[in-house]
Design goal:
The structure is a single chain. By secondary structure, the protein is α+β, with helices and mostly antiparallel strands. The chain contains five helices and five strands. The strands form two sheets. A three-stranded antiparallel sheet has the order 1-2-3, with helices on one face. Strands 4-5 form a two-stranded parallel ribbon. It starts with a strand and ends in a 10-residue tail after the last helix. 29% of the residues are buried.
Length: 168
């Protein structure tokens, strides 16, 4: 069974999803790749309270020092990409190409498609906590955020990243 709850952030409303024990999704309302197959009635669960506490700290511009329980479901490739996203430190950025290179090295192959990495990142089901917003194009361009480029810009700015030279 799936449960939902809502969180009102300063950059838009978020839908939190849970299996009852862990977070399984966080999406901005109406974002690209949002899976709107949840019950209409909100439920209050301890995991939602914990996640909202994390989000409250995050949206004050601080790095939360804990992680809510998260369960991810996806292909082996997507899970690998999402786990790399979790390793990007607060206030830091990386590129699609750098992630592709890291995966290629791990798999001992010559090259990995940055486009395939971008597709996996675009299907990240747990926005913000799994920080896909910290991934930018090789040319410094802000691209590929399912929640909207303007939100990506605001999230990076919130983390203290200099966005003045980034292209939208």
């Amino acid at each position: 069974m799936k449960y939902i709850n809502k969180y009102n952030s300063k950059i838009g409303n978020l839908i939190l999803a849970s299996n009852g024990d862990a977070i399984t999704g966080i999406w901005f309302e109406n974002q690209k790749n949002f899976i709107n197959t949840f019950p209409e009635k909100e439920t209050n669960l301890p995991i939602f309270d914990e996640t909202k506490k994390w989000l409250d700290i995050y949206f004050t511009g601080k790095n939360p020092n804990f992680m809510p329980n998260i369960i991810l479901n996806g292909s082996e490739f997507r899970l690998k990409v999402w786990n790399i996203l979790k390793q990007i430190p607060y206030g830091k950025i990386t590129t699609y190409g750098e992630i592709a290179k890291k995966i290629a090295e791990e798999k001992s192959i010559k090259k990995m498609s940055a486009q395939a990495v971008g597709s996996a990142i675009g299907h990240n089901p747990v926005s913000i906590i799994i920080p896909c917003h910290r991934v930018i194009g090789n040319n410094g361009k802000l691209t590929g955020y399912a929640g909207g480029i303007e939100r990506k810009y605001e999230l990076l700015k919130l983390e203290g990243i200099d966005v003045s030279n980034m292209k939208i």
